């Protein structure tokens, strides 16, 4: 039983005429009759009673017509969804993000993607960088928003956002009032740091910044979240270096001393598997590039 046979039967059943059905299908009458005959043989029932003057549905034909219309509609819908999937218009994306990207970067991109692709389901989860890398490699994730530097030979990472760093100090800290602040002034301070265990590339980058300023920081506390680092700084555990955007909702709790971009900048990237991604993944990454504020570059 083939779809073309079913479509031919529906054409005859709706017109009760082989002549008009053949014209509509652009088939010869013998070819159309052969298709209907083969369909009846495949089903083992007679669907149409016909002679030279009249064509009418049998009881089996009336029941089969209802099912045939539904089958053709579902086949058409399946084809439409397949074509939309090929163009990144339907499907499901499993997306992870570091919490520090949730405030300024991820919401705008997700909202715009939902607007442009309402047929796509987005599953969002907050995960640390190392967990995102693992999720992408074991294919439990499709896309990750992570803090750079991060690299892996099986991943493609596209930079979408760049921002300067800031040093944060506890309220009332003496260095909060100095006119000529520099990172080197923190050489003797205890540091709260985003832990290397959770974001090794980011940890190493901040350590290099301190090395460029002439010292190796004394890290007294590591944390898995930047907002926890801010909270610990606020109660006097130590000082910290964070991307400026993470301070937008918490700057009132700490003293903020901006650092010059020449020391380095913090980057957020969108990570996917390096193997050719789906059209849906490509569509998301392209939109993220456009709305993240930077052109893309792969690593």
TrEMBL record:
Family as reported in the entry's similarity comment: Belongs to the LysR transcriptional regulatory family.
CDD domains per UniProt: PBP2_LTTR_aromatics_like
Molecular function in Gene Ontology: DNA binding; DNA-binding transcription factor activity
Record-given protein name: LysR family transcriptional regulator
Organism, as annotated: Paludibaculum fermentans
GO cellular component: protein-DNA complex
Transmembrane segments: none
Location of the HTH lysR-type domain: 1-58
Keyword tags: DNA-binding, Transcription, Transcription regulation
